[in-house]
Design brief:
heterodimer, A: 467 residues, Amidase signature (AS) enzymes, 36% helix
Chain lengths: 467, 61
C-alpha cells in the first residue's frame, strides 16, 4: 500500500520499528501535497520547514531510544484558523493576513506535536468558519476529491478534502453548526465533534464562542481515536473548557456494543432526505438493530435557536470588521454578518431559553438511549456555485440547508461522530451522525468501530487519488 | 415572532444605531439577508418560553 492510503497508526508503527523514518514520510507527503493539492485546493499554506523540523525531531528522539508518542512521525494538517508558530492564522480571510505570524502553536497543534505528529500545513475554509461549502472567494474553493466539480463541504472543507484525497491521514477542523460533520459526510471520512468543553480551543480564531468545538478527521476509527486521545487535557486558556479527567477511547474500540441502547431519530430527522441519505441511515440503523425514536417536538425550534445564536454571536465577533473593513469580507457571508449584527437581544435571549428547553428534552431521551442515529446531511456533495437544493420535493437555499440535521445537535454541545457510508446511491459518499449524551464519546467510538469492522462504514481514499 | 415586525423599517434604523453606515444598496441587501434571518428564526421565536425558563448564555452540556 502506498503512503497515501496508510493509516496514521500504520505510519507510526513503521516509524517506530525503523521500517521508515519520519523524515522519509514527511518528504513523501510534501511531494504528494505539492503535486495533487492543486486538484482540490485543500491547502492554503504548506509548512515544509516546520514539517521537516518536526520529522527530524522525531527521528532524533527515536535514535536516542526515546519513544515520542502515538502519532510518531504522522503527517497532519489543520484548518487555517489554528495557530501554527511562525504562520499567520488566516481563518479564511484576507483581513487576518495583516496580522503577524503566530508566536506559538495553538493548544491542539501543540498537543499533536507532543504526540509526535508532523505538521504539513494549513487548510482552506469558509471565511471565519461561516459557511458549509468552503467556496472561499479569497483563496478559491476547496474541491471534493470524489468529484472536483463539487464542494468539499464546510467550513472545514480543506480538512475534509485533504484527508479524503489521501494527502494527510489526519486533519483538524472546527464545528460550530456542522463544520466537521458536513465535510466528513461529503468527503466520505470519519469526523468527530466532541462534547462542548471537552477540547481546548485556545490558539484558534473563534466564530461563535458558545457553540464552537474543535475535532479531528481521519480515514479510520482507530486513527480518529488516537488523535482525539492526544488532544485531551486541561487548558486554563480556554474559558469554555470543562475540567474533566482524561477519558481516552482508543482502548475501547474492540469492545462489543451489546450493552448500548441504540435508536434512530425519526420525525424531524426523516425529511427532507435524498435517497443516498435515506439509504445510508437505513444501512447503519439495520446493522445496529436500532429502534425508531421520536425526536422531541422542539427539534426545529432548536435548530432555529442555533441559527439565531450563530447570527448574533458571530456578527459580534466581527463588528469592527463590519464597521471598518467590510469590503474585505467574504461576499458570501458579509450581508449575513451585517444582518446578524442587527438581531435584537430579545431574540437572542429567547433562543437561549429554547436552547435550555432543548437540552432538557434531549437529556430525557438519553435516559433511555445511549446512542442515537441521524443523517449528517440531506444529500451528498453538490456542484460548486449551486444556490438552491431540490430534495424530497422541496426547494431550499443550499448553503444553510447543509446544517439542517447538524445544527440542532451542536446547539447543546452533544458529542457526535460522523461515519461515512460509501455507494449509498451513486458514487458519492455520505455521512451518518452517531450522537451520544455529553461526555460519552467512548460509546460513539465503540459503535463506529463496530460499523467499520462490519464493513458498513469505510473511508477509502477517493478513487481519483489512489496511487 | 411579532407579525408587525418590519425589516424594511428596522434594518436602516438598527444599522444606524450600530454605526454601520450602510449605503442604499447595502440597506437593500442587508434587509433581504435580515428577512432570511427572520425566516430561519421563526420556529424558535414561535416556541413558547416563560419567565420560569432560565436562558443558558454560559453553556454547560
Amino acid at each position: 500500500m502506498s503512503l497515501s492510503q496508510d493509516t496514521a497508526a500504520s505510519i507510526a508503527a513503521d516509524i517506530q520499528s525503523g521500517a521508515r523514518s519520519a523524515t522519509e514520510v514527511a518528504k513523501a507527503t510534501l511531494e504528494r501535497v505539492r503535486r495533487l493539492d492543486p486538484q482540490v485546493n485543500a491547502f492554503t499554506e504548506i509548512t515544509e520547514s516546520r514539517a521537516l523540523a518536526d520529522a527530524a525531531a522525531v527521528d532524533a528522539a527515536l535514535a536516542r531510544g526515546k519513544p515520542v508518542g502515538p502519532l510518531e512521525g504522522v503527517p497532519y494538517a489543520v484548518k487555517n484558523l489554528f495557530d501554527i508558530a511562525g504562520v499567520t492564522t488566516l481563518a479564511g480571510s484576507i483581513i487576518e493576513r495583516d496580522r503577524p505570524p503566530a508566536a506559538a502553536d495553538g493548544w491542539a497543534v501543540a498537543k499533536l506535536r507532543e504526540a509526535g505528529g508532523v505538521c504539513i500545513g494549513a487548510l482552506n475554509m469558509d471565511e471565519y468558519a461561516y459557511g458549509f461549502t468552503t467556496e472561499n472567494s479569497h483563496y478559491g474553493p476547496a474541491r471534493n476529491p470524489h468529484d472536483t466539480t463539487r464542494s468539499a463541504g464546510g467550513s472545514s472543507g480543506g480538512s475534509g478534502a485533504a484527508v479524503a484525497a489521501g494527502l494527510v491521514p489526519l486533519a483538524l477542523g472546527t464545528d460550530t453548526n456542522g463544520s466537521i460533520r458536513v465535510p466528513a459526510s461529503l468527503n466520505g471520512i470519519f469526523g468527530l465533534k466532541p462534547t462542548y468543553g471537552r477540547l481546548s480551543r485556545a490558539g484558534s480564531i473563534a466564530f461563535v464562542p458558545s457553540l464552537d468545538h474543535i475535532g479531528p478527521f481521519a480515514r479510520s476509527v482507530a486513527d480518529l481515536a488516537i488523535t482525539y486521545d492526544a488532544l485531551q487535557g486541561r487548558d486554563a486558556a480556554d474559558a469554555g473548557q470543562t475540567p474533566r479527567l482524561l477519558e481516552p477511547v482508543a482502548d475501547h474500540l474492540g469492545m462489543d456494543i451489546d450493552d448500548l441502547r441504540i435508536g434512530r431519530l425519526t420525525g424531524y430527522f426523516d425529511a427532507p432526505l435524498g435517497n443516498a441519505a435515506r439509504t445510508a441511515v437505513a444501512r447503519v440503523a439495520e446493522a445496529l438493530a436500532a429502534a425508531p425514536v421520536a425526536a422531541p417536538d422542539l427539534t426545529a425550534a432548536a435548530r432555529s435557536a442555533a441559527f439565531i445564536i450563530t447570527a448574533a454571536e458571530g456578527a459580534q465577533q466581527h463588528l469592527d470588521h463590519l464597521r471598518h473593513r467590510r469590503a474585505d469580507l467574504e461576499p458570501l457571508s458579509r450581508d449575513r454578518l451585517l444582518a446578524g449584527s442587527l438581531v435584537p437581544a430579545q431574540w437572542y435571549l429567547h433562543a437561549q431559553k429554547v436552547r435550555a428547553l432543548w437540552r432538557e428534552a434531549m437529556a430525557a431521551l438519553f435516559r433511555d438511549w445511549d446512542v442515537l442515529i441521524a443523517p449528517a446531511t440531506a444529500v451528498p456533495a453538490q456542484p460548486l456555485g449551486q444556490e438552491m437544493l431540490e430534495v424530497d420535493g422541496q426547494t431550499l437555499p443550499l448553503r444553510p440547508s447543509f446544517g439542517l440535521f447538524t445544527q440542532p445537535i451542536t446547539c447543546i454541545g452533544l458529542p457526535v461522530l460522523s461515519v461515512p457510508v460509501q455507494n449509498a446511491e451513486g458514487p458519492l459518499p455520505i455521512g451518518v451522525q452517531l450522537i451520544a449524551a455529553p461526555w460519552c464519546e467512548d460509546s460513539l467510538f465503540r459503535v463506529a468501530a463496530t460499523l467499520e469492522t462490519a464493513g458498513i462504514c469505510a473511508a477509502p481514499v477517493a478513487p481519483g487519488f489512489v496511487e | 415572532m411579532d407579525e408587525a415586525f418590519d425589516p424594511a423599517a428596522y434594518v436602516p434604523a438598527a444599522a444606524a444605531s450600530q454605526a454601520l453606515n450602510l449605503d442604499a444598496d447595502e440597506i437593500r441587501r442587508v434587509t433581504a439577508a435580515f428577512a432570511l434571518v427572520m425566516r430561519f428564526a421563526k420556529p424558535a421565536l414561535d416556541w413558547p418560553v416563560g419567565p420560569e425558563t432560565d436562558p443558558a448564555p454560559i453553556f454547560v452540556p
